[in-house]
Design goal:
single chain; alpha+beta; eight-stranded mixed sheet; five-stranded mixed sheet; 21 strands; disordered N terminus
Length: about 775
Amino acid sequence: FCPRVRRRAGALYLHRSCSRDSSNSSQELHAARGNAVAQQQSKEQMRWLLGSAFLLKMSLLARGGLRVTGARPVMSRQTSRMSSIALTTKRAAPVALLGGTFLATGREALRGWRTLRRPRWGFKAQKMTSTLTPPSSTEAPQHEAFTLLKTETLDEYGATCHLYEHKKSKAQVLSVIKPDDDNKVFGVTFRTPPRDSTGLPHILEHSVLCGSRQYPTKEPFVELLKGSLQTFLNAFTYPDRTCYPVASQNLEDFRNLARVYLDAVFHPRAAQDPTVLEQEGWHYELEGDKLTYSGVVYNEMKGVYSSPDSLMARASQQALFPDNAYAVDSGGDPAAIPQLGFDQFRDFHGEFYHPGNARVYFYGDDDPAARLDLLEEYLSEFSERDISTQIKTQKLTIKEPKHVKLGFPASSSDDEEGGQHMVSVNWLLTETPPSPKDELGLAVLDHLLLGTSTSRLRKALTDSGLGESVVGGGLSDELVQPTYSVGLKGVAKDDVPKVEALVVDTLSTLASEGFAADDLEASLNTIEFSLREFNTGSFPKGLSFMLGMMRNWIYERDPVDALRFEQPLADLKKELSVDANAYFARLLKTLLVDNTHRVTIEMTPDEGLEESQKQEEASRLAALRDEMSPDQLDAVAKKAARLKEIQSTPDSPEALATIPSLGLKDLSSEPQTLPRDESTVAGYDNTVLLTRELPTAGIIYADVALDLRGALDPEDLPLVPLFGRMMQETGIKGKLDPTQLQRQLGAKTGGVGGGGLCTPRGPEG
């Protein structure tokens, strides 16, 4: 069992907790009831566990509170899924892990640990130091091929950022120095606004990874992975940009990955070989006398377009942005993808995949001068060119809220009474970017509305009984202008108008009545804590930096400002100290309640839609086949056969030899040790206490492991996950109801979670 708590003492601020679908609780409860064969002894043991855990919970509340968020496995570089505490447990599981995180220093840290000593399993008070390691040098390296535009220190995260421009090609380069992070990240991003829904940016993202000038294998990254220690390797297509990031802790491996990616994006085989477009995009095939479409992206998007959630997200974006690139689908509409030809495909790469349209990013502890040398190898052959890829601002042109009704493929059971309609209410919030203070204020407001199961708007929707679960996601600020979306799925046909009315009425009420002081404190603390923690889990921190910076950089704004929060937070706190509800009332009324650029999307189940789409496609293909001469049909068959032959033919030894791989000389022979102090808790000789000092921005992470073998019979184990949920959702009898508990957890901690962990029985039993 693993309650895990994070705490920041005396502080007030983000990462919105996503509450689970309420139906999950019902399923867990049903399973628990069905599996628990309780005997009297087991009941007494369970009562002891419940009582002890609640004592821990209440003692923490007395000192600052908890916020149950669900436990995360602690991942080491050996990818162990057990926490360090569990790894030291020699006996067989089940084990319960009670854990948490506190942000405190000095006296506050000691107070937090002393509080944890109160339960019978105990903890010894420990002082945890936590500081960010400053960069060893802030001096920017000079390079004859690059102009240093500016140097900025990102004090919030202990990083130094150098922004360069390549003199010849005008490529922009952001070099982030982080001496205490050996997980190095490289990425290149292009602004790729689509002009239609053929999916050209998405298909090109796939295609550039299919071989290049220097690495002419069909799938260089598949070969590269065979001899790589990469910690991340992927590519992303956004509605207006395409990103190619890689990461590795091994320096030679990191440079290999960067070189392969640079050659792939600037010199892909796809720009000269039409078979790549046929494979990754679309092509004709003959199945007997039947003409069909096939292709990687085409087939992928057929699946996407059968998902109601994907269709709703696409419809809301296109309805809110009717006049710019977001009005079409960068991923590709299956009905439009076959309209894409090779000339258009090749020209798009030539226009958009030029260094002058690129944002190149480096991060980590590697030599910043060597980064520029590596880049110059690829940028030197490009010259400056006039490139216009700016994203047009969408004006707030909708003067009366709109209602859009669309069907989605469904089975016959989905259209029963009380059935599966989906409704979302969507706003385009502003024409211009909000100020840093208001951007932060919007994040707090979003948490107040939807951040927890007791947040006002989420609770109103959930308690209304109008639908099964909340959809929409709330605030989105990844594009050139922010949007807001919220609604319900599983709505009865007659209740669809009630959902929109409930959303608008709830927002109007909140604008007039405001929020409780405890709610305001909890949301502000949650936002601030997450910003300071910046916990990305197994996801490379440098990649999170890159994606965060890109939402400014791609729109000609300062990339570093996207991660700054100290000054905006201070400005926000100052305004909230005067009249917090007046501030949020202004945001609510201006951006939501009085904002007529609003679109309600209603998705209706259509049992016959999928079949009608298939028939429409079959009719279109049949007409095309009838127009083809025998020679043209023969050419289609030969082209498809040739593509399959190419796909099945192995790469030549000469091509494979071009792929770089690591050798023994590139690997360290020294085992990696994770320093820690191991002791026992005073008075409890069998209780192991492990401590480790890390640069955690003042946050204390605590885990308590309880051996459940003497407390629970195996048939009672299904109750443990349910108990973890109960800690968060049922309150504390006679002290805090569920809403009050949520407020205390958000105001006083960074998170609490609980769960079970089973470990194998060791040879010693």
